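anyone else get weird line breaks when pasting these?? whatever heres mine. first is seq + tokens for prot A
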Amino acid sequence: MGVVQAKIQTVEDIYRLVRTAVLGKRPIRATYHGRDRWFCPHLLARSHESHIRGLCYQYAGESGSGLQAPWLTGQLALHCSGETQQS
């Protein structure tokens, strides 16, 4: 399986990356707060303040609390590097 790499710099870059992953049903590998995370995004939306919010399932990588509750919700990181996996 090949990796599509993306250098994330703007909120719009993050939105496009996650939207592409949702539509293509592809997982994302990202670095968030210095931790490597692998997750599948399922929903993507914008708040009234134009913040990008999502519902993701983290299936691998690191987490501050472990993977006891792998469903992640909330505002997506504004400063992360990520890549999608090709199917």
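and prot B, same format (seq, then tokens)
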Amino acid sequence: MGHPTEDILYGLCQSSVRNYLNNVAVGKPIVSPVVFQGGVAFNQGIVRAFEEELETEIIVPPPHRSEGSRWSSASSARRDGAQARRENNIQGLRSKLISTLQLFLRVRGLSQSM
């Protein structure tokens, strides 16, 4: 009875990708080659969901974590202490996903406005 855990988790990945593309990247062209960097690039479900949704291969370079970490660290340094504390909750996880996906668009040469 019910659905396998893998199916449920992949459904969440698909939902996250569709939400990002429909709310953040809306109206912005995303064309091949697509490079995905940052910690979220470790999530094979997110990468697969992007590949399926964009109908193109997603390139995850070997040092993908370090580039995203550098950008994230620079971004975090600009935040005040109260903001950094707020990001320790579930909203912080959402914020980090969005930051990584913003980097994804920046790597593609697309501007990001939120």
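btw re prot B: The chain has one domain: 5-107. Residues 5-107 form one domain.
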